[in-house]
Amino acid sequence: MTIVRQKISWAKVAALVASVIAAAGSAWLVQPSYHNNANAILVVTTVFSVLAGFLITVLAITADERSLRGSNWRQDTVYFELIKKDLRRHRNMFYLYLIVLVFAFVGSLDVLWPAAWQHWVERALLFLAALAMFWSFRIPGYLMRRHMEALERRITERREKETQ
To answer: Fewer CB within 10 Å: N-end or C-end of the chain?
Structure first.
């Protein structure tokens, strides 16, 4: 069993481009309301702190050795590569959450820099936050798929055991 390179999914590319455009537009439009709004800063830091903690749980679920479901070491090697791919994706989301928190921290500092710089830091923060939120909507589907695969595997094992 070997890993086959996936073809480019144009639907995924379109979704990526749409999310980047939507995040840029929302950052530009929301920034004036975000500027000097202590409640907004608190909401962003709270939401992304919770999301980062949640994603640590997702990483732990993904890295569980029960995910190696092959009947031999060769199949387990293929599943291991798929698990590494999922872990990389989740790690990158975790980094994105942390970058949002860093921008929230930097944007909340009362430093003596030009107002235009402050606006651009806030726009970058809001852009990354919107992007992270859009991309976070994939996580529940991922978790559901993982659990459904485990349940299906368990049913198959029981069926094989009962038919022997």
So the answer is: C
CA 146 – CA 164 distance, rounded (Å): 27
Judge whether 35 and 118 are in contact, CB under 8 Å.
Answer: yes
Q: For residue range 125-159, list pLDDT tens digits in order.
A: 999 999 999 999 988 888 888 778 878 877 887 88
- pLDDT at site 1: 45
Tell me, yes or no, whether 8 lies in a domain.
Answer: no
Is 38 among the domain residues? Answer: yes
Range of the domain at 137: 13-163
Among candidate residues 120, 122, 96, the one with its CA nearest the CA of residue 108 = 122
Q: Which long-range contacts (CB under 8 A, 24 or more apart) does 86-95 make?
A: 86/62, 86/142, 87/59, 87/62, 87/63, 90/55, 90/58, 90/59, 90/62, 91/59, 93/55, 93/132, 93/135, 93/136, 93/139, 94/52, 94/55, 94/56, 94/59
Q: Does residue 7 belong to any structural domain of this protein?
A: no
What's the total number of domains in the chain? 1
| Beta carbons of 132 and 48 less than 8 angstroms apart | yes
Mean pLDDT value across residues 87-109: 92
Note whether residue 6 is domain-resident: no
